[in-house]
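Field reference: sequence -> structure
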Amino acid sequence: MTRAWFVGLLLSCAAILTACSVHYSFNGSNIDYSVIKTIQIADFPIRSSYVWGPMGPLFNNQLRDHYANHTKLIQVKRNGDLKVEGEITQYQQRNKGVSSEGYSAQTELSMTVNVRFTNNKKHEEDFEKQFTATATYETTQSLSSVQEELVTQMVKELCDQIFNATVAQW
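Structure field:
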């Protein structure tokens, strides 16, 4: 009786293990690579009235690198299974904190991009959405001395947000 029960238990476990499958992804993406193989990432032009020259190329390169480093998708110029396009719509600074003397103590820099995402294999996942990142610096510093570092931080945050919304679907 014990042997029959043990064999039955083994067969039950084997049936459960073969019937159920769990998909683990260590890169944060939720992509079915048997269906989705390519991605098309268009250049995001700057449509903001306030501009820092290197911002556009920095963003475009970082976005492409993010998908290349975190997915197995092949980047193509056209007809991608997934398509990411949009524009940098806003880049601005504003006073954030005020000192006890009534002067600005901190300045907030922000960057906004408008993204249009198309999944040509599953159009119900298509969207158009704005993403914003901010960074703060002390007013005692000049923008030109911190701009590259802050824009780089904001670009990284924006790329994370876009990646999560498109292929990680968090």
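Note: The helical segments are 2-19, 55-70, 143-168.
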